[in-house]
Amino acid sequence: MVKAMMSSSLLMIVVAILATTTICIFSRNLDFYSSSERRNIRSTRNLEEVIDLGSAKEEIKTNEFTSNDIEKAAEVVEAIVEVEEKEEEMAKESSVVVEGEESKPEGEIIINSEPEEQVKAEEGGETIVNSEPEEQVKAEEGGETIVNSEPAEEVKAEEGGETIVNSEPAEEVKITNTQKLEVIPLSEICPEDFPPSHAMVHDHRTVAVEEYEKYMGDQVNDWNSRWDDTPEVQTVTDYYYAVWNTPHHYICEASAWNPNHPLTQYIHNDRDSSGWVQPTVLHVDTPIKETLDDTDYVAFTSWFHGNYGHFVHDHLPTISFLQEIVPEHTKFLLVDSKVTRAVLKSIDPDFYENRIKWIERDHVYHIKRQLTVSLRKSYQITMGCCGAFDPMRRWMAKTHPELPEKRTVLYYTRGGSPDTTHGRILEPNHEEQIIQHIKAKMEQYDVKEEFVIFNGRDNENKQTLPVETQFNLFRAARTIIGPHGSGLGGNYAWTNPYPTNCKDRTQLLEFIPGTDSAVVQTFPFTTYYNTIRKWPLDYHNILYTAESSYETTYINLDDLDSSLDYMWGGGDPALNSVP
Questions:
Q1: What is the pLDDT of residues 376-393, one digit of tens each?
Q2: Among the listed residues 419, 554, 414, the one whose alpha carbon sits nearest the alpha carbon of residue 482
Q3: Which of 39, 237, 369, 402 has the most CB atoms less than 10 A away?
């Protein structure tokens, strides 16, 4: 059949071959650019220049080229970069049960952890490593409490109230809850902050605040107004399905087609950035890897398979949505990844064991029964407003209803490890000042939560904390403070899913680049707010100062004090200023 088509339409063949890969890039990660591009982009410090890069918005987003035409691909990437778009109440108190552990002395804890960067989780005795490590950070020494994230077998009190905890995932802290609490829709939790527009930025410079609010407000309000962020779904029968690699390993595209009419009957999306592509002649001639006729299946496509942060904020919302709407017998077609396995096994062991069919990229699977596909507007879950994360909150609450009685102030550090590859490391002496300012403000406002320093790694075996350990740490957090990085972007989803009003929300204070420190991360105002604004967080930002570089960063300590005055001092806007 295919050969007959080939002979009848030579032109169609040529066009199909040329359309082997569609590149859709909505990321600001410098790894996507060449060395010269990085230098040019980092040198951009003027706001108008930065905005000009995105002035063409969606005029250039795709380009067709053969899989071997790498030079042309690079040109497309450069073109896309130049026109990239600017981008509950608790019914009862829960209790904390710590197995094998007596009461711990008061004091601070440093937890060696490493979130998105190199996500290594234990499973079946093997180490799970994120396919795209971003950073590895070391616990601070010098009088701080260190939590070694192996098993939480014993807690030894040191002199001066410091604590060293040997902690392993399942045995570290088991938190129980007396009853399940209700998950309130985002729109009902804090109506005054809905729909979300931008976080609260704390900066003593009026101009900097105005620049931030305009840049972020214009961008997010545009996204909010475009469409509902609920994915469309289509159901077909007796279709072929595959996920394809592209020249850029972080981008994967998917195709689903009728084997009898492969070039005319296939799943497509009106938006090029959805990841669904028309199969080419080369695709449809790929041998069948496996025929699946045992049950119905569901599939979606996204990017950065194997990356912890992107899996949590780009893949998991769609999986959560789909597992609510498809029948329980339906299995999920998921690209096999150790990170994906670790996260889903931790979230829902029953789903992990019974609802997944692991597939390989560049292999074709014949789905004999129903295949339901999700058609998101883009790889990222940034577009549209604003219920995309509610199914994920409901899933987290159903499988992990625990809410700890003992809460924490969690500080995320990226510093201290030579393995951190994406910069944004606070200068060590300056970071120590930041920690001391946080402690002083905790004392000033009688903040009773325990202070925890988190960097994701086990100080002894140098491995990343297992997902379950990171889950428990962030579920306990009342306030999270630290620089932009997957320690925040990959773990926000483990925070309290039950807030019922503005004050119940977990507070997040993220350090990000401003217009005079865009060199830190290519563009100003690079924040997770765009994506995770749909999670119930009380979101705040501080801007890096002008002396910051890609490698080393600084913030204004007066602005830090001002932000903590606002967050812990009752939210009086008059406190958000520096004398």
A1: 776 667 778 888 899 999
A2: 414
A3: 402
